[in-house]
């Protein structure tokens, strides 16, 4: 039987992948970061809506890129095909060593915190226990993605339903209290005295972290059924669903909890339930933890495809473009991340990690949508079944790059570390990748690759799927 990645992602699974990736730890931990850096309830709600609108713009741009460029790989392949090999490798370098492990660590830590919350309430769970449970959850998802594409996709669909149920359990009691006239927490909602403009980029980072995931279908483009139709449809429906859900969830939070309660809470959803819905105090944290579990599953599922495609394009060791001969999963690419994620979970803090990886992520997303403008200019003859107005990629790119530039002033230490991580890829590219691609010589990893290939039972893809 031929060994290649099958087209197993239907429209329902694509929708579940997007919902499952967006609705995760973000809506349950980011409200604190958004409120802290926006200064007031009213401005924080404006930030949440603006982040949703910005996410829709970005999602529409990526939907068009997904119909113009037929390879999997997401940000990486779009930057490679439009802006060239150097910026695409810098993205890959930053994504592997900073963006993805930090993102996975944030979600894993949120999973561990919410999973243990019912057992230690009203006290905070011990940090070592949180980190241990976080790693156990991550390793479980890693094993599942190594075992079966179908089961990973089915789990994502089931957990997407759990995520929407978790949001509903927060929205319904909050809306009931609001209808009864509990509006005291919205007095002076737009207090300008507490607004600090130089912190707004960090508020946007926290909000966009909660929405991040709208680009996930672009990573598995070759495994999608009818991608020209299903990518735009899944993107539009899922992003609108999440915007509505997030706005209602935040209104519910503020209806029940005051500003100081949100800022003081290590787990906002748990504090909400303690105040509004005590009968479900042990249920909601578990639902939130399962929501984070689904986000971990979606992240591993999609990023392994980036490493797979980068290896196929010659910018990553060849072992990672191989597929298990029986499971038909990109096993080496799935397994590669666990040492870095383990290290970041052990030493990291959620909010510092969030600022650390957000700089690099939004820099390269801005470059990818800039690449859409470039690709349109270079290939005016190319027919795309889905096309967005030109002002959408232009405005999205400008906002992304402006926010990235402003963040240097807001959080210079973490942003400088992220910038240094990106720039450290320059010598690696010119000393190894560029030289190897120019000379087309055998990879220095050839003999190690051969031994690992036998050990892991993996081979190169036999059929092109793009």
Please tell me about this protein's structure:
The protein is an all-alpha fold and 466 residues long. It has a single domain (11-460), classed as Amino acid/polyamine transporter I. The protein is 73% helix and 1% strand. The chain has helices at residues 11-22, 26-38, 41-68, 75-83, 85-120, 127-147, 149-179, 200-211, 227-256, 259-264, 268-276, 284-312, 331-335, 338-347, 350-378, 391-410, 412-423, 425-439, 446-456; strands spanning 322-324, 458-460. It has a two-stranded antiparallel ribbon. It is globular, with a radius of gyration of 22 Å. The two termini are 19 Å apart. 54% of the residues are buried. The model has no long low-confidence stretch (mean pLDDT 83). This is XCT protein. It is a multi-pass membrane protein. InterPro entries: AA/rel_permease1, AminoAcid_Transporter. Pfam families: AA_permease_2.
């Amino acid at each position: 039987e031929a060994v290649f990645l099958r087209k197993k992602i239907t429209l329902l699974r694509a929708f579940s992948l997007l919902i499952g990736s967006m609705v995760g730890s973000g809506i349950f931990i980011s409200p604190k970061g958004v409120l802290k850096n926006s200064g007031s309830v009213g401005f924080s709600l404006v930030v949440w809506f603006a982040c949703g609108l910005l996410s829709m713009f970005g999602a529409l741009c990526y939907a068009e890129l997904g119909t113009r460029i037929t390879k999997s790989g997401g940000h990486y392949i779009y930057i490679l095909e439009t802006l060239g090999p150097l910026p695409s490798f810098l993205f890959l370098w930053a994504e592997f060593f900073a963006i993805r492990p930090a993102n996975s660590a944030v979600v894993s830590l949120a999973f561990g915190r919410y999973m243990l919350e019912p057992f230690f309430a009203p006290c905070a769970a011990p940090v070592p226990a949180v980190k241990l449970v976080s790693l156990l959850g991550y390793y479980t998802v890693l094993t599942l993605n190594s075992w079966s594409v179908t089961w990973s996709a089915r789990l994502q669909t089931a957990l997407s339903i759990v995520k929407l149920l978790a949001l509903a359990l927060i929205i319904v009691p909050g809306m009931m209290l609001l209808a009864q006239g509990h509006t005291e927490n919205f007095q002076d909602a737009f207090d300008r005295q507490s607004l600090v403009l130089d912190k707004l980029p960090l508020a946007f980072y926290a909000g966009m972290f909660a929405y991040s995931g709208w680009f996930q279908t672009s990573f598995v483009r070759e495994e999608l059924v009818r991608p020209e139709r299903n990518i735009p449809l899944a993107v539009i429906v899922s992003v609108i669903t999440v915007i509505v859900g997030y706005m209602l969830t935040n209104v519910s939070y503020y209806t029940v909890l005051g500003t100081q309660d949100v800022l003081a809470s290590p787990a906002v959803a748990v504090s909400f339930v303690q105040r509004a819905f005590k009968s479900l105090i042990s249920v909601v944290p578990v639902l939130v933890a399962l929501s984070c579990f689904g986000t971990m599953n979606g992240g591993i599922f999609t990023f392994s495809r980036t490493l797979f495609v980068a290896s196929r394009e010659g910018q990553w060791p060849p072992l990672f473009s191989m597929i298990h001969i029986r499971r038909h999963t990109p096993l080496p690419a799935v397994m590669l991340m666990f040492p870095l994620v383990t290290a970041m979970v052990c030493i990291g803090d959620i909010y510092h990690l969030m600022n650390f990886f957000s700089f690099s992520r939004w820099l390269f997303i801005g470059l990818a949508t800039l690449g859409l403008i470039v690709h349109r200019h270079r290939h005016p003859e190319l027919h795309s079944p889905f096309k967005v107005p030109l002002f959408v990629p232009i405005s999205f790119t400008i906002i992304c790059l402006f926010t990235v530039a402003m963040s240097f002033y807001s959080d210079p230490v973490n942003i400088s570390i992220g910038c240094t991580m990106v720039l450290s890829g320059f010598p690696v590219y010119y000393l190894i990748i560029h030289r190897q691609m120019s000379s087309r010589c055998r990879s220095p990893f050839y003999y190690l690759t051969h031994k690992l290939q036998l050990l892991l039972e993996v081979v190169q893809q036999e059929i092109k799927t793009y």
